[in-house]
């Protein structure tokens, strides 16, 4: 079967849109979950995604240097995802504990400013990791190094993967393999990303809908005081929400690293805003809405490249954000009737 | 020994002081009501007992244990459940899920399921609508759900804040019959109610509260005969 060139290109972009949409959806879930429980936009969420990408890079770099990536690539990738997830989760929990909890009763502006501060601190911390390592290792007593030379070079080598201003590169493990469906080439990397994302999102949905902790999260998002009267530990539930939302961002961070190869300390900004747009588009606070919004935005963005110059790609996302906020602030799935009293 | 003892509790919202040294006692098996005008501090007393507000001074003892510094989620585990003012059911959850939330502190699943069935026998309306979002229920049904949800925690002391608010006289009667039935099952009740007449009908004793202070207390019969209560709260000249 042969397709017309236009349809062929369209299908190719569709696959591309699903890939990008998966990233947006995974990150958007974190925004929407945090908004659900705290009614605040976690502007540090994009940077938590970045921390996940760096933790993943650090792990895969180590596994590569000991040769494990060659001998057992599947397990190496699984471990990379786990560490990326855990790194992002712990960062998320720490950000909530240090930056949001102290100002929880101080109003929305305080939380917003604190979130922006947390975002800057996360970026700069990751950027400065090598510098800080070097400063500590360079401590001298008289003319002698405090630490043995082997130790210094070993640690500097470790810190090399973590941070700095320059872009860092993931090993090209996903490869260029793939298959052709109806004349459209689909790489295994894209399949992995889309399928894994969908599985994770389904798992999240089941967790929120049918488990005790999920029910606690929904209760806290609706009414903290009443939830606590039922016996829900509100603070712990908020921490759990940050843990899970950040884990999803960490997974997205590792995926972006594996797929695009290059990561930077400021990589969280644009995807962060786009994922935020997705969450708003789907109806912020609504979990299926964030998934839907992510995929819609991914598809609209890549299809816009078909009709508009590619440089307008980012503009499309922001136009959607503004239009949604003006004409449909509850989003596609946000239920007006039950929208939280603000 | 008294089940609940509130000792000289002072509470404030920021700089506004709401309670100025409230003391009261609830004995096991009683229905005790708090009578007072809007803003007298009735809701504040209930919120302080269940830990939503921390007193600046004073003590709350429950079955001999000091609850004053415990967070609400620990207090409910000790056996105190509140039916909050305005019901506060989880409107985005189904009725069944609301009842399960009420049993959040419990882990014995078969026992929880059995209790939910008992609730459904008591409130057949809720059973018909178990899969519906509770935000779609009428005010009276939501009140029933809020009470049922509190009962799911298996409390020894049930606090009710304005259960009749916004309900028709017929519904009011059925809510008060439910409260009596709950009390007959051995659960102690502390009731805050605007409808002084109805609450004195079911209560054993009552406290009258004005601007954050208890002004006096008596048996329900005694309060009904009290001239000040008659004039101020019952509207009888």
Give the secondary structure arrangement, pairings included.
The complex is a heterodimer of chains A (342) and B (237).
Chain A: H1 5-38, H2 45-65, H3 68-71, H4 73-100, H5 108-137, E1 140-141, E2 144-145, H6 149-160, E3 168-169, E4 178-181, E5 184-187, H7 188-210, H8 212-222, H9 224-229, H10 234-260, E6 262-263, H11 269-282, H12 287-307, H13 313-327
Antiparallel strand pairs in A: 1-2, 3-6, 4-5
Helix pairs in contact in A: 1-7, 1-8, 1-10, 1-11, 1-12, 2-4, 2-5, 2-10, 2-11, 4-10, 5-6, 7-8, 7-10, 8-10, 11-12, 11-13, 12-13
Chain B: E1 4-13, E2 16-26, E3 31-35, H1 42-49, E4 57-62, E5 65-66, H2 72-78, E6 80-83, H3 95-102, H4 109-122, H5 124-128, H6 139-151, E7 157-161, H7 169-184, E8 188-192, H8 196-202, E9 205-210, E10 213-219, H9 220-225, H10 227-234
Parallel strand pairs in B: 3-8, 3-9, 6-7, 7-8
Antiparallel strand pairs in B: 1-2, 1-4, 4-5, 9-10
Helix pairs in contact in B: 3-6
Describe this structure in words.
The complex is a heterodimer of chains A (342) and B (237). Chain A has helices at residues 5-38, 45-65, 68-71, 73-100, 108-137, 149-160, 188-210, 212-222, 224-229, 234-260, 269-282, 287-307, 313-327, and strands at 140-141, 144-145, 168-169, 178-181, 184-187, 262-263. Chain A has 342 residues and is mostly helical. Chain A folds into 2 domains: 25-266, no CATH class; 268-335, no CATH class. In chain A, the strands form 3 sheets. Chain A has a two-stranded antiparallel sheet. In chain A, helix 1 (5-38) crosses helix 8 (212-222) and helix 8 (212-222) packs across helix 10. In chain A, 44% of the residues are buried. Chain B has 237 residues and is of the alpha/beta class. Chain B has one domain (4-234): Rossmann fold. Helices cover 39% and strands 26% of the residues of chain B. Chain B contains 10 helices and 10 strands. In chain B, helix 3 (95-102) runs parallel beside helix 6. Chain B is globular. The N and C termini of chain B lie far apart (39 Å). The A-B interface holds A 212, 215-216, 218-219, 222-223, 225-234, 335, 337-338 and B 50-52, 71-73, 76-77, 81-82, 84, 88, 90-93, 97, 100-102, 104-105, 133, 135, 149, 153.
């Amino acid at each position: 079967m042969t397709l017309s060139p236009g349809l062929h290109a369209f299908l190719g972009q569709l696959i591309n849109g699903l890939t990008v949409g998966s990233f947006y959806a995974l990150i958007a879930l974190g925004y929407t979950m945090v908004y659900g429980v705290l009614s605040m936009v976690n502007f540090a969420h994009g940077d938590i995604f970045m921390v996940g990408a760096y933790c993943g890079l650090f792990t895969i770099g180590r596994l590569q240097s000991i040769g494990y990536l060659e001998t057992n690539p599947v397990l190496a990738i699984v471990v990379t995802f786990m560490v990326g997830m855990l790194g992002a989760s712990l960062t998320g929990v720490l950000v909530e504990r240090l930056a949001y909890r102290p100002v929880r009763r101080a109003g929305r502006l305080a939380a917003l400013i604190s979130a922006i501060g947390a975002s800057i601190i996360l970026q700069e911390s990751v950027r400065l990791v090598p510098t800080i390592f070097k400063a500590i290792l360079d401590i001298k007593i008289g003319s002698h190094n405090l630490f043995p030379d082997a130790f210094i070079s070993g640690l500097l080598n470790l810190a090399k993967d973590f941070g700095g201003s320059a872009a860092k590169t993931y090993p090209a493990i996903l490869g260029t393999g793939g298959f052709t469906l109806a004349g459209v080439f689909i790489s295994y990397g894209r399949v992995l990303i889309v399928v894994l994302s969908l599985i994770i999102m389904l798992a999240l949905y089941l967790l929120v809908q049918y488990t005790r902790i999920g029910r606690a999260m929904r209760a806290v998002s609706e009414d903290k005081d009443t939830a606590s009267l039922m016996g829900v530990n509100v603070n712990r539930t908020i921490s759990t929400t940050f843990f899970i939302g950040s884990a999803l961002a960490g997974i997205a961070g590792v995926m972006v690293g594996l797929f695009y190869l290059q990561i930077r300390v400021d990589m969280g900004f644009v995807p962060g805003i786009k994922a935020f747009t997705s969450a708003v588009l789907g109806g912020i606070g609504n979990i299926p809405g964030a998934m839907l919004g992510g995929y819609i935005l991914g598809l609209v963005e890549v299809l816009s490249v078909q009709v508009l110059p590619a440089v307008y790609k980012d503009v499309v996302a922001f136009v959607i954000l503004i239009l949604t906020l003006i004409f449909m602030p509850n989003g596609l799935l946000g239920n007006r009737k039950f929208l939280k009293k603000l | 020994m008294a089940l609940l003892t509130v000792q000289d509790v002072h509470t404030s919202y920021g700089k506004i002081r709401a309670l100025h040294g409230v003391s009261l006692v609830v004995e096991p098996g009683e229905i005790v009501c708090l009578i007072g005008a809007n803003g007298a501090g009735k809701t504040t007393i209930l919120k302080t007992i269940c830990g939503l507000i921390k007193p600046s001074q004073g003590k709350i003892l429950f079955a001999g244990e000091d609850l004053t510094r415990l967070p609400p989620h620990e207090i409910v585990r000790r056996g105190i459940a509140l039916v909050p003012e305005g019901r506060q059911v989880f409107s985005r959850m189904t009725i069944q899920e609301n009842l399960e939330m009420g049993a959040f502190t419990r882990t014995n699943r078969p026992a929880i399921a059995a209790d939910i069935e008992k609730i459904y026998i008591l409130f057949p309306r809720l059973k018909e609508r178990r899969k519906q979002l509770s935000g779609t229920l009428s005010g009276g049904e939501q009140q029933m759900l809020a009470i049922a949800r509190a009962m799911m925690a298996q409390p020894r002391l049930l606090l009710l804040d304005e259960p009749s608010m916004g309900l028709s006289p017929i519904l009011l009667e059925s809510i008060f019959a439910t409260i009596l039935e709950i009390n007959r099952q051995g659960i102690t009740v502390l009731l805050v109610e605007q409808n002084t007449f109805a609450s004195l009908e079911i209560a054993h004793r009552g406290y009258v509260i004005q601007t954050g202070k208890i002004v006096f207390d008596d048996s329900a019969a005694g309060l009904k005969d009290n001239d000040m209560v008659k004039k101020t709260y019952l509207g009888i000249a």
